[in-house]
Request: fold
Amino acid sequence: MRLIFKNLNVLRSTINAISTSIEIKEIVESAVNNLPNLFDFSSFGMFWKKDLLLFLYQEESCPPSFTQEVVKNMVKVFSILGEESIDVERISIQTENRKLRPGRMMMEPRASLKSHLTLPLTVEGEILGCISLNSDQSNAFDAQDLQFLSVIGYQMAATLKHFQRLSSIKNMAIYDTLTGLFNRRHFEERLGVEAQKSFYGGTPLSLVMVDIDLFKKVNDTFGHTEGDQVLCKISSLLKTSVRKKDTVARYGGEEFILILPEAGLEESFLIAERIRRMAENTVFEVGGIQVNLTLSMGISNFPRHRAKSKEELVKMADQALYDAKRGGRNKVCIFTEKSAQWTVP
Amino acid sequence: MARGVRDEKEGKWSSDLVLDLYSNLLTEMWELVSALIGEAILAYLFTLAIRKIGEKYPFLNSIKVSEDGVSMEEVKQDYRTVAAVDIHRGFQSLINHLSQLFSDLAEGVINKELFPRVFPKFKEAERIISQK
Reply:
């Protein structure tokens, strides 16, 4: 009776630790830290389907052949449960060796997988992954072990689902749902950070405002669905044309904006020109017809244009874009004092 | 009694019996296995098994599964006309498939508890069918 109470207390604290975890790795750690008090086992694994991640905690004397068997078995069981075959090669396996069973002797170098309990991590009919408790001993687990593991698995699944929901809410707050680019709200945030760095650190910062020329015509001729496709294609062109540290966002409608940190005017002009030429040379298929589309762009730069705020920097890029449009489209224009004068009534 | 005779004549009597028998067995299985692996996992496994075996025995697709358990009401209402032997085979396949899934997950741990309850019911269903 005392043993049952002890186990229930361990189970309670395991569940508590899992439910208060704030990332996947921490969830698995929370479980693994308590598992040796509940089970006699050689390894514990958690497979996370979404990222094809497998966390494997194993006895430090565990031979590599045992690890391979465990991975193979987990993938096999998951494939049966998830009704989809998973290629082991695509899984990223994070293995950690620990003293999981202090009271026991070391595992034999030729130890093989003799028993396991593998349970799906499932919530609301959706399978998120699986967990597995493994042993080099035959019949290592009984019904009570299964009950305890299922309670732990249930809590892990519920916490993971909670993470998924949070992450999808976070994504909605950051990304534009159509193009997958950052949305305007996130752009403002990023610009705030970059402008701070730049204004106080004295490093250059450029903005490139991009607009698809005559986009209204695409929508009017081919319809909004085809227009949306064009927006997606231009978005991916922009995304693949910038540097890793740059930010590409959808500013609204057919307008996009690029934040180019540490880019001087010349470098940002080269980037913008490269994008303009790429768009010009790309044949877009719209509604089964091949069409050519062009982009107009306006550039502003700190410190060159002496913007006093991030808002002013955006305004300058917008005015330069206006110059590019007025100048006949399919152009990259750099902000000048003259552009500023045009907007003054 | 009159209904019983009529049903027997139409070949429905044993179908009802077999449906009742398997309805009870699935409820019993649910209670036993959910205590071991929890309702969420078990509901998932039942759904998986029904989808798979339901391809061959479509009447199984009318079994309702949720985390509250399995409900056979719709099957009992709509499939009384299915031959008892087909009902038996369908459920037998379903239960065998579930047993296989349990074995994939926990080797003999679940089936050790389950088999003593399942086998007598299979025998009873066979007896009902052979009496027809």
User: Anything to note?
Assistant: The first strand of chain A starts at residue 43 and ends at 48. Chain A touches chain B at residues 76-77, 80-81, 83, 115-120, 122-123, 125, 127, 139, 141-143, 145-147, 150-151, 153-154, 157 (CB under 8 Å).
